[in-house]
Amino acid sequence: MSVLVTGSSGHLGEALMRTLREAGEVAVGLDVAPGAFTDVVGSIADRACVARAFAGVHAVLHAATLHKPHVGTHAPEAFIETNVLGTLILLEEAARARVRAFVMTSTTSAFGDALKPLPGAAAAWIDETVAPVPKNIYGVTKTAAEDLCRLFARNERLACVVLRTSRFFPEADDDPAARAAFADGNLKANEFLFRRVAIEDVVEAHLLALERAPGIGFGRYIVSATTPFRREDLARLRIDAPAVVRERVQGWEEEYARRGWRMFATIDRVYDNALARAELGWRPQWDFVAVLARLRATGDVRGPLAKLVGAKGYHPERLEDPYPVEGAR
Predict the structure, then answer these.
(1) Helix pair 11-22, 199-216: axis angle to 10 deg
(2) Is residue 112 part of a domain?
(3) Is 253 inside any structural domain?
(4) Would the pLDDT of 327 be above 70?
(5) 259 near 184, Cβ under 8 Å?
(6) Which of 12, 18, 24, 52 makes the best surface tag, with the fewest CB within 10 Å?
């Protein structure tokens, strides 16, 4: 099976390309930026370019996007062109080519203001029943692209799966206060409790989605590390998160103390991946406990694939703040 991977010069795109090719699959990389895993250089909003890339393709992994950090550097029209028009063109060409499956990478950021409970309220439990409330052009265009996938599944019988991934990028945190208060590894380890996922598990979710899409027709799934928390923990997570973590996870405090790390005082949302595990057969390996074990063994929360791909950044030039607009957060 030949797979078209969009965004093949990006972090996830490269990870997908590496994994597919190592497995002996034929993978064609499409990206606006040249790269070691990009075969076709061009925009997904350029129909002629996309049509050329579809030659002989049987499935699509659509990871190309403008990201949240681009909100401060790109006009809203650029988000619409890439995230909406580009997705539309890909879907149209996929339907024309009668591909077996179309998998779109979306984001838990699309939930927007639904992730933020009111002061004094319990933490938010985020599963697929929660309606997104986008707070910036990034979220608006990603939810629009998701709905285009649903439309093509309905009207064109194109098997489409949308994966709303939580944080897996290696770049520094988007909150300057968090960057100032916590070591980067400390932040990322903490997040595996409720809003982070390993790139290895993200890749596996995409490959399973390709396999299962024809039987699903259309589906939307949260892709995040399996949380140890339960719904009954939500009120206490806002008040005393470390106490809840002590109850749900054993053996982390000694390692944290040795490193001078701290647990977050409060946690405001928890991502639930149960539907992805049930319907995709996804079995993410890297939860907080597994990451802590890797940290003890290697001194790093990252796995081999994350290290191999490395940090890509979001901008051609190095900015003092990679997240320059408050409204993007």
Answers:
(1) 70
(2) yes
(3) no
(4) no
(5) no
(6) 24
Q: Helix and strand tally (H, E) in the chain?
A: 14, 9
Is the pLDDT at 161 greater than 60, yes or no?
Answer: yes
Per residue in 241-256, pLDDT (tens digit) is: 999 999 999 999 999 9
Q: Report if residue 141 sits inside a domain.
A: yes
Report the number of distinct structural domains present in the chain: 1
Using an 8 Å Cβ cutoff, are 275 and 208 in contact? no
Domain of 150?
2-172+198-225+273-286+303-318
Pair of tokens at residue 58: 């049987």
Q: Where are the alpha helices (DSSP H) in 113-233?
A: 137-155, 176-181, 184-191, 199-216
Task: Give dist(CA 53, CA 43) in Å, integer.
Answer: 11
State the CATH number of the domain containing residue 119.
3.40.50.720
0.85 surpassed by pTM: yes
* pLDDT digit string, tens, across residues 101-135: 999 999 999 999 999 999 999 999 999 999 999 99
Question: Among candidates 4, 12, 14, 114, which has minimal Cα distance to 57?
Answer: 4
Burial class (CB in 10 A: 0-12, 13-18, 19+), 47: middle
The residues near 76 (Cβ < 8 Å, ≥ 6 apart) are 137
Distance CA 27, CA 41 (A): 14
What is 151-177 written as a DSSP string? HHHHHS---EEEEEE-B---SPPS-HH
**Residue 260 lies inside a defined structural domain of this protein:** no
C-alpha count within 13 angstroms, C-beta hemisphere, residue 53: 33
